[in-house]
Input
Amino acid sequence: MKILTAAQTREADAQTITNENIASVDLMERAALAFTCWFENKFLPRQSVYIFAGPGNNGGDGLAVARLLHERSYPVKVFVIGDLTNASQDFQINHDRLPAAIAATPIVSIADFPSIPERALVIDALFGTGLSRPVTGLFAEVIGKMNNSKVCVISIDVPSGLYTDKQTPSEGAIIRATHTVSFELPKLAFFLPQHEQYVGAWHTVPIGLSPKYIAEAKTDHYFTTLEDVQQLLKPRRKFSHKGLYGHALLLCGSLGKMGAAVLAARACLRSGVGLLTVHAPSVGYSILQTAVPEAMTLSDPNRRVLSKLPDQMDKYSVVGAGPGIGTERQTKTVIGQLLATTSLPLVLDADAINLVGSSDRLKAQLPRNRVIFTPHPKEFERLVGKSKDDYDRLENMREFCREYACYMVLKGSHSAICTPEGEVYFNTTGNPGMATGGTGDVLTGIVTALVAQNYTLKEACLLGVYLHGLAGDLARETVGEISLIASDLIEQLPKAFRRLAPHQDLAR
Ligand SMILES: NC(=O)C1=CN([C@@H]2O[C@H](COP(=O)(O)OP(=O)(O)OC[C@H]3O[C@@H](n4cnc5c(N)ncnc54)[C@H](O)[C@@H]3O)[C@@H](O)[C@H]2O)[C@@H](O)CC1
Ligand SMILES: [K+]
Output
C-alpha cells in the first residue's frame, strides 16, 4: 500500500470531494465518524473526554468528534486555541453545530488550561497535515501541558506539531500521543523510530478517499499488508521434487557462535528450501549434523573460523552468508572471493556486512542486482555511514541501493526494505520481543530459502520480512514479549506460512 505525503493527502481529500460531489464538511463528518467508531470500540463512556481543537480542519474534526461522542453519552469538554476569526470554514460549521450542552472554552493564555482528572481521556485536534511551521508560543505551552497530563492522549490524524513527511525542526513542540488514529493511510513519519514517543500506537480508519487518486499517486514509500504478501506466495506444485525448490548454501558460524548457524539453517529449512548445505568451521561439524539433520554439512579446513569457499559453488542457487562468522582476516578473504567469483544471488548479514563495510575494495566488488543486505542499524552505519536523522538515513539507504544496485532490509520495529530503484517498503509485522539475539540469523535463513525457491530478490525481502515478523507475533501469543527467543520464531514459521495461504494445503 502507498504512503502519501501531506500534500498528496490534501490532494486526495480534494479529489474525493470533487469526484463524489460532496461538500468538504461532509468528508470531515465521515472522518469524524470513523474516528468516533474507533474510539467507541476502545473506550467506554465512563471516562470524561477533553478535546483540544486548533483553528484548521484538524480542529474541525475535533469539534465534530465532540458532538458525536456527546451523542453517544461520553462526558465531553471542548477547548479551542488560536485566532478563531481566521479558523477554517469547516471548523466554523462544526463550531456552530456543537450542542448547547458543550461550551467550547477558548484558551487565550496558558492560565486557561484546565486541570485534567487522572482517568480522563485527551483528544488532540490541534494540527494535522496542514502544519506549516514548527509549533511555538501558546500552542507549544498547551502541548507541554497535554504531554504532562499523564493521561491517555489520542491524536486525530497526526500527533500535533509533527511533520508527516519531513524532519520537524527541534524548536517545535510535538504531542506525545498514546494512540494516533490516522485517516485512510498511515503517514511516513509513523514508521520512523525517532517518532516512537510522539506517535504511540498508530491505527488507520477508512474514510473512502479516492481510490483512483491513490492508485495514480506517485510515491517511493509503501507499507506491506497481509494482502500484499499473500499475492506473492507461490503454491507448491503437485508433481514436486526437492530440485524445484533450490539448493541454498549458508556460510555461517565460528567457534562459540555455532548457534547462529543452527538458527539460520533451521529457519531456512522451515521456509521451504529444497536442499540446504551449511559450510562452517570444523568445530561446527558435529553440532550441525546433530542439531539440523535435514541439512548437509561441509567442514572448513579451519577449526575456528571460515577460511575457504566450498568447491563447486555453481551447484547452489543462492548463498546466505554472515551469521556468527566473525571478522577475522581469513573470513574477510572468503567474503571477498564470494563477491568476486560467484554469480549467485547473495544474502549478506551480520559480520558479512561488517566486513564489506570495513573495506572499500570489497564494496567495489559488489555484484549488481544480486545482493540483499540485512543490517541492523549499527551494521547499516558501518556499511553506509552515519545519518543526521531517520529521514537522512532513508535517503542514505536509497542512495546506497541505487549506487550498488542492491537490496537492503534495514531491520527495526518497522523494517524498511529498499530496492535498487530507491523504493522503500515498511513492514508491518513484528514486536519488541524480537529484539533479542539470533532473530536476525532466522531472517537470513528465511530470505535465503525464498531466493532459493526462485522468488525475486524483492519478493524474498518483502515476504521474508513479513513472515519473520508474523512468526514473532505468533510467538508473542504463546510466550509473551519478554520470554521470546529466536527459536520461537522458527517454531512459529509453519503457522506463519499457513496464515498467508490458509487454504493451500486443504485444496488438494
Ligand atoms: N481537507 C479535508 O477535506 C479533510 C481534512 N481532514 C482533517 O484536516 C486536517 C488538515 O487540515 P488543515 O489543512 O486545515 O490543517 P490543520 O488543521 O492541520 O492546520 C492548519 C491551520 O493551522 C495553522 N497553522 C499551521 N501550522 C501552525 C503552527 N505551527 N502554529 C500555529 N498555527 C499553525 C494554519 O495557519 C491553519 O490555520 C487533516 O489532518 C485532517 O485531520 C479530515 O477532516 C478529512 C477531510
Ligand atoms: K492532531
The chain has 18 helices and 17 strands.
